[in-house]
Design a protein that fits this description.
The protein is α+β, with helices and mostly antiparallel strands. Helix content is 22%, strand content 23%. It contains eight helices and 14 strands. The chain starts with a helix and ends in a 29-residue tail after the last strand. The structure holds zinc ion (ZN).
Length: 269
């Protein structure tokens, strides 16, 4: 399981991005029937399918929201002030429909979240090294002809436009197509591709932190200990963008090796 240091710094939540080597199950988590939309839903249960959509939000301790991906981007959001979280499935359709913007709007209306406070982590997905799209899709993203789409950069741009500060956005930079050992890739494996689970949940709301008489700096609760045992130290695979200004999309384009490019199939939408 991969974790993002920018989210690990928040002791009131748990999160992770599953891999082939460390597969996760959605048992005990709220999930979605994913439809490549910009729909976000508030998780109303601890386990099972909440409904059709591509983002799940919650501000309730004990509810873990989860999504499945294999090339599409898993994006996790956290509001450290209101203690609300979101798990987002963003492929090209959801990205074009601005699913991160829609989800931030949902967090604002449900939990009073302010974009400037949000922390975001973009997990492994197909990278610009491997994601060739046809002209129809390319044009949706302002490209003049078929070419390579950088989904992570598109979503970082949308997060910034929505008001999330660049230094509160972490990007994995890992390409699912390039690494068949760690990741499933729908483009590479087609029907044989499994799905990777990404999740985020609130461990302690402010209210129950206070009532328990503890502070974040106090000794970890039992649940914290369990979470740490579940999470191996693979955080170095995450890049944290620290550039205060002059956002450079090329900075995100890491994690792919040239050798695998020869195996890339012909472009197909
Ligand atoms: Zn790649």
């Amino acid at each position: 399981m991969l974790t993002s240091p920018i989210l690990e710094s928040l002791p009131w939540l748990e999160h992770g991005f599953g891999t082939r080597q460390a597969p996760l199950s959605q048992d005990g988590m709220a999930s979605l029937k994913q439809i490549h939309s910009s729909l976000s839903l508030v998780a109303d249960r601890r386990e099972g399918c909440v409904g059709e959509g591509d983002a799940l939000v919650t501000g309730e301790a004990g509810i873990t929201v989860s999504i499945r991906t294999a090339d599409c981007l898993p994006i996790l959001l956290a509001d450290p002030v209101g203690r609300a979280v979101a798990a987002i499935h963003a492929g090209w359709r959801g990205t074009h429909a601005h699913i991160v913007t829609e989800t931030i709007g949902r967090m604002r209306s449900e939990f009073g979240s302010v974009a400037a406070n949000l922390v975001a982590a973009i997990g492994p997905g197909i990278g610009p090294c491997c994601y060739e799209v046809g002209e129809d899709v390319a044009r949706l993203f302002g490209m003049e002809r078929a070419g390579r789409l950088d989904l992570a950069s598109e979503n970082v741009s949308q997060l910034i436009e929505a008001g999330v500060p660049l230094d509160q956005i972490g990007v994995s930079g890992r390409c699912t197509f390039c690494d068949p050992v760690q990741f499933y890739s729908w483009r590479r494996d087609h029907d044989r591709a499994g799905r990777m689970i990404s999740f985020i949940g609130v461990l302690h709301t402010r209210k129950n932190t206070k009532s328990a008489g503890t502070r974040e700096t106090s000794r970890p609760a039992l649940s914290d200990f369990q979470i740490r045992r579940r999470a191996p130290a693979s955080r170095r695979s995450f890049l944290r963008l620290r550039r205060p200004a002059g956002y450079d999309p090329l900075f995100l384009g890491t994690g792919c090796n040239k050798a695998s490019r020869a195996q890339r199939p012909a472009a197909s939408g």
